[in-house]
Write the structure tokens for this entry.
Amino acid sequence: MTDKPLSPEDCTTMAEVRAGVDALDRELVALLATRFGYMRAAARIKQSRDAVRDEGRKASVITAAVGEAEAHGIPGDVIADIWERLVEGSIAYEFTEWDRIRD
């Protein structure tokens, strides 16, 4: 069992900071795996390939992420860039899954 990393405020060494970042990265990847699971579900549920790309939904997801970022005091522009890539990657993955399921 791995010890829980220190909170950022409690870190006093770079080793502690790095341990915290590494632990958080593992959690983020696990969360992204779940997110991509929802993309697989969307690909399964959507009846039309044309329904995969939804620019209105994309914009609302990015706007919501920026709002959350700003509420947490982190740079919204950085989160907007990350979410742009995340959403586009998710759309590409969903297209791949949509095609795979129906081949």
Remarks:
- The mean pLDDT is 97.
- Residues 14-45 form the longest helix (32 residues).
- The radius of gyration is 17 Å.
